[in-house]
């Protein structure tokens, strides 16, 4: 040791003899001013360097070099010299380190930060974003997000389109490709807002995705639905299948599809409906967190009320349409929709039932569009609806809901009579 406490030429022998005290202590090198070693009360030794950045009116910067053992004394002294040289040139090593860390931020890290924001995303949106990063962009997820280029985006987009054209729906389609790159664009924009380079510029922009503007396939709006002259046959068939249903999941699937036609709900909203959201006495159900984030109470037609009254309730299962599956409720009545498609004469998805409901309301029942929009909880940007009109309690639309349900029954009656007439003709 030297006569001056905690100041000496730092060597291996000197550092090995340092003993911990009751608090952090610093030992400074006499060869390189600002270079030192810190020892904690537990005996941990860490090399540091301290200096002032030239032309910057800020307190002295103290930078951690690394632990003794990871660095030798001589290695740490060389690093300290580099840091001090940078400071004399006006460069803050802390900002350089931060910029280097930012430059290494991966797509997966951006995704994790984006989806973990409290209250910002619905579970379905979060699931879709994570799925695309995990599948569509699997080869990129661990790469620095700033390394994603226009050419990479164009190549991946075209790969998805090619696979889609080959019929590989799981690997690609115009719709999936567009959705995937919308997700990527949102993640890049978020990264640009949250992460900055050393010069203050955004880490990245939507640029690589925006470059797809001329490549993107313009998808026609989907209009598929059960055609008017087939609705009665479908509604009739659903009633007949329900009478013949022999297990819980089959009953749940049929009642769920009937409920979709009676309400025009989205499949995710209807399938996850719980009994505590339903009030059969007053004839309504409540959606606390629908897709458009507009909590709403919706009317039930008498047909829907009667259907729900006879639905079995499963002890320990809160769902109106329960299932033995992992989710606890029917999620995708795929097999039943194949049967519905056969009766309808065209492929029908659960969302097509929502379009069918809308067309019944507008075309067959002559319900004005604003009321139809309310019934489907599909409000467009409207100052009156958003700021002046109560759209949270729609029980006053019960007559409209009843009109649609009655029309379905009328069409089923017509379909049944046509079936009888046809059978008689065939028998003759």
Automatic annotation (TrEMBL):
Gene Ontology biological process terms, A to Z: DNA integration; DNA recombination
Pfam families in alphabetical order: Arm-DNA-bind_3, Phage_integrase
Protein's recorded name: Integrase family protein
GO molecular function: DNA binding
Domain Tyr recombinase: 222-401
Keyword DNA-binding: yes
UniProt KW keywords: DNA integration, DNA recombination, DNA-binding
Organism (species): Magnetospirillum aberrantis SpK
Top-rank taxon, per record: Bacteria
Family, as annotated: Belongs to the 'phage' integrase family.
